Here is the input.
Amino acid sequence: MELAGRTVILTGASGGIGQPLCAALVAAGARVLAVGRDEAKLRRVAQDMPAGSTSWVVADVATEDGRAHLLRAAQAASPLPSVLVLAHAQAAFGLFEEQDPVDMDRLVQTNLVAPMLLAHALLPLLRTHASAAVVVVGSTFGSLAFPGFAAYSASKFGLRGLTEALAREYADTGLRFQYLSPRATRTPFNTPAVDALNAELKVSSDVPAEVARQLVAAIVQGRSRMQIGWPEKLFARINGLVPGLVDRNLRNSLPIVRRHARRPRSSTEENIHHEPRLR
Here is the structure.
């Protein structure tokens, strides 16, 4: 799919790999409708792009009002959008028992329910084109569930399943669905704890501009699935074929994961924890 002359909706444009992805789409000739929750950040993204190539919509796509606002903006765009790139996500790192239920609910709404409902709302518009695409920026954790990322992995597994099912449902149409998975990327999306864990486990990470380049190349090539990075590509395949091998490998890393994932105790909790030793 050539992107020149197309309008692309890009969610998550103001965070993570959003800006380099916007730049790569514009470099490929697309006009980008950048979506995010922070107007100041979106404005800066647009200002860094060639004049007239990028407009923005302030919307929280995890809410009904936000999705409705984006739909109205998409319907008013010229030309009408023919590509939807779902690149927004909420991060979560920590031991499952210590996760806040409210945060977990918000994570699933943001990472899975919102993309599902947004794609559903935009399908009639996308299908006005002879060829169109819904591109999901997933994660290695959508194929390889990882301790310390249980809720996040669950949301990404669900998103991968949604994309795969829709790709099969629309296989005989001009609308395609793509699930493209970066590995660890050097952005503020990672907390210091995640960066420390990756460093100790010697997890490789990519610069955002290179990830954006590979994502846009995959969109142009029409690849239905892509996992960026080696050995992540291999591990994801092994996990699908022989998950027990991955189970044993990750079990050896559990002490490291738990040390980095454990929630810091407050001073009150520290006092309670030490009280039996003071008696």
